[in-house]
Amino acid sequence: MLKSPVMLAPLVLGVPQMAELLDAEQPELDLAVAHARQTRAECSINACEAMIGRYERIFALPAGGKTLEERRAAVIFVLNSRQLVTPDYLIRLLEGVLFCHCELAEQFSEYRFTVTVEGENRAPDIGAAVRYIRLLKPAQPTPDGRACRQDGIGDHLS
């Protein structure tokens, strides 16, 4: 707020015309401050709204049919996975985004792997696990396996 002794001298604040001018300008100043805060927030993937589409284009991610939080998580997941995808690295990433214990078993003879996602108090989101693995596009082995819950229910990776 401009109308304070911290921003303007008390002598200036005492002029009636100045008070009217400051009251008229304050809504525009509030808009400018809000715009600056939003612009700063757009630089952070965790808080962006308008720029999420740009980030998805940069990382060649599909944008349709997901919530804003899922879109942000996908961008962060790809951004953090720009290194060689080892089994341990894949497990750490999946556990970090799914909040569940994960295990990975490689079938070298078949050139594929299986990810087991174990939920404790809730059923883990197998679809999310499949989407995250597809985003990584691991070089070896080919992601042609299953992400399954402890009870054996799962989705096939293609």
Quick recap:
This protein has 158 residues and is α+β, with helices and mostly antiparallel strands. It contains 6 helices and 4 strands; from the N terminus they run H-H-H-H-H-E-E-H-E-E. Strand 1 and strand 2 (112-118) form a beta hairpin.
What does this protein look like?
It is built from 6 helices and 4 strands, in the order H-H-H-H-H-E-E-H-E-E. A 4-stranded mixed beta sheet has the order 1-2-3-4, with helices on one face. It has 158 residues and is α+β, with helices and mostly antiparallel strands. It is rod-shaped, with a radius of gyration of 25 Å. Among the domains are: 10-42; 80-153. Helix 6 (126-136) links the parallel strand 2 (112-118) and strand 3.
Secondary-structure blueprint:
Blueprint: H1 10-13, H2 16-42, H3 52-58, H4 68-79, H5 87-98, E1 101-107, E2 112-118, H6 126-136, E3 146-148, E4 154-156
Describe the largest sheet. Answer: 4 strands, mixed
Note the run of SSEs as H and E.
HHHHHEEHEE
Strand adjacency order, main sheet: 1-2-3-4
β-sheet strand percentage: 5-15%
Total number of strands: 4
Could you name the ranges where pLDDT drops below 50 across 5 or more consecutive residues?
none
Molecular shape? rod-shaped
Number of helices: 6
Helical content (DSSP H or I, runs of 4+) = 40-55%
- Name the average pLDDT: 76
Content-based structural category: alpha+beta
Q: Work out the radius of gyration.
A: 25 Å
Distance between the termini: 57 Å
